[in-house]
Amino acid sequence: MAIRGFLTLFILAIFYSTVTGQVKTCEPCDSSKCPLTSDKECIAGLTLDRCGCCQVCAQRENELCNHPEIPSSKQYEACGENLQCKVRVNTRGGPPEARCECNDQTEMCGSDGKTYRNYCHLMESSKLAKIEQKPIIKVFKRKPCDSVPEITLPPVSVSNKTKTNVFLTCEVAGVPLPVVEWVYRSSAGKQIVYPTDDDRVSTLVRGGPNAHVVTSWLQIQSLQRSDEGTYTCVASNTLGKVEKSCTVTVENGREF
Fold first, then answer.
1. Alpha-carbon span 177 to 106, nearest angstrom
2. Could you read off the pLDDT of 178-203 as tens digits, one per residue?
3. Given a cut of 50, is residue 18 above it in pLDDT?
4. Omega into 176 within 30° of 0, i.e. cis?
5. Distant-in-sequence, close-in-space partners of 14: CB < 8 Å, separation ≥ 6
6. Is the dihedral angle over the CA atoms 180, 181, 184, 185 positive or is it negative?
7. 205, 180 in Cβ contact below 8 A?
8. What is the full DSSP assignment across the chain?
């Protein structure tokens, strides 16, 4: 009976430790026993450990962090510079979790000509550059850097029968936001720049799906043999122009 009682207490102790997040109690602080942690090792800067004794690396953006509303989070360190620990709903259906979020979520252009998703992203990159003995990165302007257009989703070649409808899609990114045109070229050398006033061939441009991105569609209604040829998505802004082409083929078959 004594052995059974001991095993029961042992199992309960393990269960309690698991439920409480396996948080160890803090011993009296002796800073002489603290490991030497250099700021160069810590991308998000230094912070005091959970016991408030030794300096350790702070949690980076999107890493789990210590939050008073989440008991299991006590096993993590505090967030680093310019970061705040915030509770998030777990999208996988689990319990809520706490993660570090940047206090300034504005997209920024760095002195290196690159766009950073927020201030913390820029500062992390600057610190890494300093470690690698490269020029540190500063905020050039609080908005994305200007960039030449980039076709992130090029149009895809299509083959279909006459009288059917055909859709071509072209997704473009750039700052300033690019202007998109479609250029049709037939095998005989005929060329048409869309949009036009043609009711059968129409174009549509819409912002998204992400910031600084536009998506353009070209629709051909009631496909005819005269529509066969090359269709080029042309995107341009003040910094340059880029283009990608595809073909529309009319399938052989009996026409009615």
1. 18
2. 999 999 999 888 999 998 988 899 99
3. no
4. yes
5. none
6. negative
7. yes
8. -HHHHHHHHHHHHHHHHHHTT-PPPPPPP-GGGSPP--GGG-TT-EEE-TTS-SEEEPB-TTSB--BTTBGGGGGS--B-TTEEEEEE--TTSS--EEEEEES----EEETTS-EESSHHHHHHHHHHHHHTT-PPP-EEESSPPPEEEEEEE----EEE-TTS-EEEEEEEEEESPPEEEEEEE-TTS-EEEES-S-SSEEEEEEE-SSTTEEEEEEEESS--GGG-EEEEEEEEETTEEEEEEEEEEEPP----
Global pTM value: 0.66
Residue positions counted in the chain = 256
Tokens 């529309």 appear where?
248
Average pLDDT over residues 221-238: 96
pLDDT in tens, 168-179: 999 999 999 999
